[in-house]
Amino acid sequence: MTPPGTLRVGMDLVSIDEVAASVRHFGDRYVTRVYTPHEIDSCRGRPGATDGSGGLVVESLAARFAAKEAVMKVLRPVDVQLDWRSIELHRMKGGWCEIRLSGRAAAMAAEAGIDELSVSLTHEAAVAGAVVVGRCTSRERGDG
Amino acid sequence: MTVDETIRRVLSEHGRLAVPIESLGDDTDLFGSGMTSHASVNVMLALEDAFDFEFSERMLKKSTFESIAAIRTGVLEMTAG
Question: I need a labelling partner for A122 at 20 to 30 A (CA). Which of A39, A59, A60, B45 fits?
Fold first, then answer.
């Protein structure tokens, strides 16, 4: 049983060039299999771009992918590949992001007693990264 | 091109492996050979293109992509019938 207040931390780094190459090569198939409509909308910022990005800010996509992977490290799935879209980075009006889970990801968080998730995103020229902290606040549930 | 040759071509082009594809055995751990989670998404999409199917949700788990043998099993299952 995970005591209330227990923290879990996940972090991940993603190459921005790799994400850009995926968008160029697979286009909408890549984007829509990994990102939610809200995430896609919040990563639009280069209208008329001719670099194959479809107007998407690939640094932002890469940071969101890193965050999704960091959430998976917090949830600790065992041979389960969660739908990437079940972990959504919801951009708030102030500019920061919050994590919203759905489907199996939400169920795993509930099973582990994780009621709060917090994320920080960053990117440099070549790499995007994210750190996610999950806090177990449930008294009656644990991580098994 | 055989199924195995196609899988190896896809891994060579999209797997971002840290070792030459020729050095991998059928059961070599691809994640242990440098394939990242992001690269595995590309491998999944490229396999769907190469074999003209879409992986079912049931197949979308890490073990499906952990080795050439595991990928072959998944591809043959998805293309059967």
Answer: B45
Cα–Cα distance measured from residue A92 to residue B68, given in angstroms and rounded to the nearest whole number = 42
Could you tell me the residue range of the domain that residue B66 belongs to? 3-79
Q: Is A108 on the interface with B (CB under 8 A)?
A: no
Q: How far apart are CA A40 and CA A35, in angstroms?
A: 6
Torsion of CA A7, A9, A43, A51, to 10 degrees: 180
The two structure tokens encoding residue B54: 């879409």
Closest partner residue to A65 among B38, B57, B62, by Cβ? B38
Tokens 């050095």 map to which residue? B23
| Number of domain units in chain B | 1
Gap from A144 CA to chain B (nearest CA, Å): 21
CATH of domain A7-136: 3.90.470.20
Q: Has residue A99 got a pLDDT over 70?
A: yes
Contacts of B61 in chain A (CB under 8 A): 79-81
Do A84 and B41 lie within an 8 Å CB cutoff? yes
User: Which of helix, strand or coil describes residue B41?
Assistant: helix
Q: What are B26-46's pLDDT values in tens digits?
A: 999 999 999 999 999 999 999
Q: Is A104 on the interface with B (CB under 8 A)?
A: no
Q: What's the pLDDT tens digit per position in A59-94?
A: 999 999 999 999 999 999 887 888 999 999 999 999
Distance CA B51, CA A104 (A): 28
